[in-house]
Amino acid sequence: MSIYNDYIQEIEDRKAQGLHPKPIDSAELLSEIITQIKSVNNFNREESVNFFIYNTLPGTTAAAGAKAQFLKEIILGETVVAEITPDFAFELLSHMKGGPSIKVLLDIALADNGDKAKKAAEVLKTQVFLYDADTDRLKEAYHNGNEIAKQILESYAKAEFFTKLPEVAEEIKVVTFIAGIGDISTDLLSPGNQAHSRSDRELHGKCMITPEAQEEIRALQAQHPDKSVMLVAEKGTMGVGSSRMSGVNNVALWTGKRSSPYVPFVNIAPIVGGTNGISPIFLTTVDVTGGIGIDLKNWVKKTDENGNIIRNENDEPILEEVYSVATGTVLTINTKTKKLYNGDQELIDISKALTPQKMEFIKAGGSYAIVFGKKIQTFAARTLEIEAPVVFAPAKEVSIEGQGLTAVEKIFNRNAVGIAQGKVLHAGSDVRVEVNIVGSQDTTGLMTAQELEAMAATVISPIVDGAYQSGCHTASVWDKKAQANIPKLMKFMNEFGVITARDPKGVYHSMTDVIHKVLNDITIDEWAIIIGGDSHTRMSKGVAFGADSGTVALALATGEASMPIPESVKVTFKGTMKEHMDFRDVVHATQLQMLQQFDGENVFQGRIIEVHIGTLLADQAFTFTDWTAEMKAKASICISQDDTLIQSLEIAKNRIQIMIDKGMDNHNQVLQGLINKANKRIEEIKTGIKPALTPDDNAKYYAEVVIDLDLINEPMIADPDVNNVDVSKRYTHDTIRDLTYYGGDKKVDLGFVGSCMVHKDDLKIVSQLLKNVETQTGKVEFKAPLVVAAPTYNIIDELKAEGDWEYLQKYSGFEFSDALPKSTARTEYENIMYLERPGCNLCMGNQEKAAKGDTVMATSTRLFQGRVVEDKDGKKGESLLASTPVVVLSAILGRIPSIEEYKLAVEGINLTKFTPISTKQ
Questions:
Q1: pLDDT digits (tens, 9 = 90+) for 434-450
Q2: What is the DSSP letter of 231?
Q3: Highest-confidence range of 310-314, 387-391, 545-549, by mean pLDDT?
Q4: Contact 326, 273 (CB under 8 A)
Q5: Kind of pairing, strands 750-753 and 855-858?
Q6: Contact (Cβ atoms closer than 8 angstroms) between residue 717 and residue 881
Q7: Interior CA angle at 9 toward 7 and 11, to 5°?
Q8: What is the C-alpha to C-alpha distance for residues 163 and 844, in angstroms, rounded to an integer?
Q9: Which of 362, 508, 575, 825 is positioned for an S-S bond with 663, CB 3.0–4.6 A?
Q10: Rounded distance, CA 332 to CA 350, Å?
């Protein structure tokens, strides 16, 4: 069988699923297709021409290389194809974005080809995805007197690739579709259990919301062919939980417009709205695709005649509707007035959704084109030795005389690119910054690889200190889907220059360590900026931003990111933490007390949480920063004391050294370079040359929150509140309850200790609690299953050395084996303890699952519907989030314990200690 025949068979298989042919990325397949095109009488010729024109992926895919070369042959007259004239070949090259297409265009433009050279130049003037090899050729040709090169550079200097694009329409008509009531998690738009299909855009698109919702969207489009469908989170925030490029891709696939007639299933310009706006990292992803995200504010707190908030019997503010966005409502986005209208009625100012920068993204079809366009304009102007004309909206610069800097403002100023020397910027300023650490995770990694290919990148930027590709989200089960995706991903990233969790050559032991934990270890400077393909990229050193796969690709390719400097909320602590409390309880209490202090307003949303937590090591402090994703914060920064930071850096050094010892370093010795940088940073702190990062005393914050530890008397549980009569209050992470609320009798069907929220001490707590129960009752019996998944292998090795792992083994009914990884996901559990492979496990929900309808008590981060547990007829699945001792005891008892049972079980256990720092920062 030929590769082509295999492809045809795959197409037939996909037809059965209602799918079109998968886009071609293989040079081998496309070469066979090209051979058939050249054979005029070939039976498959007509079909092959269509595949070549309409179904080949652009950028730096292997297929794009073969396509570009064949188009070159056609343009030069070496091959004649009736369906593809030389002019059409130029048009096809113009849609291929970069890489081999740029090389071909430069080959033709810079040769003595007369009209062909001029036509190639005209296409090149529209292109922005050029890299050093391309710009070096242009520069050399220009200096050698090539007139075509000069014309191209002059066009670039004027940014004609942008200025000649059509202007954004003054009015954009939309018709609303309520995607859900309350917060809409990206799991609704791109379910975690379908992560395996994310790089197959059409297939993955079928999992968005529900088939019924998809039919409703199609019906709205049929009724309103001249309008865009706007997905709305009614009474909630759109896109909470993660950036999820696949979620935005799905929304664009169903409601957006095609980016190119010659590139299948890549849509742009989605429009989304939320009563409480759009989650920050999700909004970044919307910008990537040239879309619009609107803060609708269509429900507000009801007030009396004196302006006081009216509350219900539960002391919660009553909301009243300002205007309706019910499904089928026709609205108008006016890009000139920056207002949203219903007919002639002005509803709300939406200028934040239509800033000058965002308007540029919309015009260019996405933010990447603007990022690369600015770089190519600067290059051209420098080469021509002229001043580049002002074409793009100037970056907003906010500089307030006499005002100090918050921690994030200091970090952004230190890493800023292109600002005047001596200029100090405050929150609200638009900044390009260099990125120090980049992380890619395994269920979005193939999309990141696609984005890198699409932007024609072939090697990691030399200014990135370190980058890591994880294997944690697919660690639980080595099934056929993982076997098909992960080796391909690891090979690509390894060759790109990223440190990979699995070596394509099989030289070192494959790692499944949780990406956030690894990034937390390889961040060796609290002044660092980190970008990671997961919402829980929230380090306890530096400032880290969870990002979509495209932003990760951009950071890997350019070593840069662009964003406004966020506002900050300062969080400090007072009082004394009680002996029977775990630090996870402090984390939950922070959310609860913040909401109480600000009358239900989440002041963390979209901002930096600057937490003054200096007495905890990075591993333990990570519990707080990790949770800030669920607080809807943009990121978090830990303010550490000097000695604490030094200890954290020493731990990081040791763990990086283990990675080196396992053979994970590459030819650039990235990991060794991180150790060298850590040593330098430690010396700076010890000598006082550069102490640990602190904000200025006169820094200005959006708000300041003081958490009273004296008020935390019982373990705190984040409850999805699945039966709340107000649907918008379900699955929000904002319902925090104490242990006594449950009366000691709420049934628990499964316990889970794992995910990025736990550290080594949590696993020691499991061991110690089991010892306590055995001492107190003479034996340990589980009335509900307990799943335990360490975040990293290092933790297991340390537990083995300290004697705790042996005790865990004693009471486990199952222990993972790297030699015999599971090939089938576990969905049914016995009442035993399972020691599972390091990785995300149940928290991710894409492989392992609790039984439908279960009540799960977990240490993980997500309580969204269907994530850890799905509903079943007559019973909702619910995932309650709590500390490790609460989870373990719940599994032993088969129910949530009483406070008395809890205190007895944790007696003598060294729970995570925390003492607020009293010295002035």
A1: 999 999 999 889 889 98
A2: E
A3: 387-391
A4: no
A5: parallel
A6: yes
A7: 70
A8: 44
A9: 508
A10: 11
- pLDDT at 356 (0 to 100): 93
Distance CA 854, CA 845 (A): 14
Amino acid at 487: P
Nearest to 624 by CA among 584, 577, 581: 584
Please calculate the CA angle 804-810-815 and round it to the nearest 5 degrees: 90
Cα-Cα-Cα-Cα torsion 398, 402, 408, 414, nearest 10 degrees, comes to 80
pLDDT interval class at 921 (50, 70, 90): very low
Among residues 168, 361, 352, 327, which one has the least CA distance to residue 248? 361
In the block, tokens 């081998």 appear at 28
Query: For residues 472 and 514, is the Cβ–Cβ distance under 8 A?
Result: yes
Using DSSP's 3-state secondary structure scheme, residue 432 falls into strand
Handedness of CA 304, 305, 307, 308 (dihedral sign): negative
Query: Cβ-count burial of 462 within 10 angstroms (0-12 exposed, 13-18 middle, 19+ buried)?
Result: exposed
User: For the segment 785-797, what is each residue's pLDDT rounded down to a tens digit?
Assistant: 999 999 999 899 9
Per-residue tokens: 483: 């076997």
Q: What's the CA gap between 50 and 587, in Å, rounded?
A: 56
8 A C-beta contact, residue 507 and residue 375: no
Strand partners, 24: 56
Rounded CA-CA distance 333/359 in Å is 13
Query: Could you tell me the CA-to-CA distances from 566 to 279, 355, 415, 905 in Å, in that order?
Result: 14, 16, 15, 43
First to last CA, the chain: 70
| Helix 760-777 and helix 793-802, axial crossing angle in degrees, nearest 10 | 40
Closest of 217, 236, 635 to residue 411, by C-alpha: 635
> Residue type for 33, please?
I
Rounded to 5 degrees, φ, ψ at 438 are -130, 140
Tokens 């004649």 — which residue? Answer: 80
Q: Please say whether the beta carbons of 251 and 231 come within 8 A.
A: yes
Helices (H), 502-641: 515-522, 549-558, 583-597, 618-627
Instruction: Dump the DSSP string for 479-501.
Output: -HHHHHHHHHHHHHHHHHT-EES
Which residue, among 150, 299, 290, 170, has the nearest Cα to 234 in the 3D structure?
Answer: 299
294-303: average pLDDT: 93
**Pick from 558, 191, 614: nearest CA to 376:** 558
Burial class of residue 863 (count of CB atoms within 10 Å of its CB; 0-12, 13-18, 19+): buried
- Whose CA is closest to 294, among 346, 339, 228? 339
d(CA 785, CA 227): 51
Domains and CATH numbers, the chain: 3-163 (1.25.40.310), 171-354 (3.20.19.10), 431-565 (3.30.499.10), 568-710 (3.40.1060.10), 716-906 (3.30.499.10)
Count of other CB atoms within 10 angstroms of residue 81: 20
Here the contacts of 505-510 (C-beta below 8 Å, separation 24 or greater) are: 507/663, 508/662, 508/663, 508/664, 509/662, 509/818, 510/471, 510/818
Tens digit of each residue's pLDDT (9 = 90 or more) over 547-600: 888 889 999 999 998 889 999 999 999 999 999 999 999 999 999 999 999 988
Instruction: Tell me the two tokens of residue 86.
Output: 């030389």
Tell me the C-alpha to C-alpha distance, in Å, between residue 910 and each of 77, 152, 162, 449, 762: 78, 68, 61, 44, 10
Interhelix angle 642-661/515-522, rounded to 10 degrees, is 110
Q: Check: CB of residue 126 under 8 Å from CB of residue 161.
A: yes
Burial class (CB in 10 A: 0-12, 13-18, 19+), 343: exposed
Q: 3-class SS at 401?
A: coil
Contact predicate 3/32, CB 8 Å: yes
3-state secondary structure of 687: helix
Mean pLDDT of the residues in the chain = 93
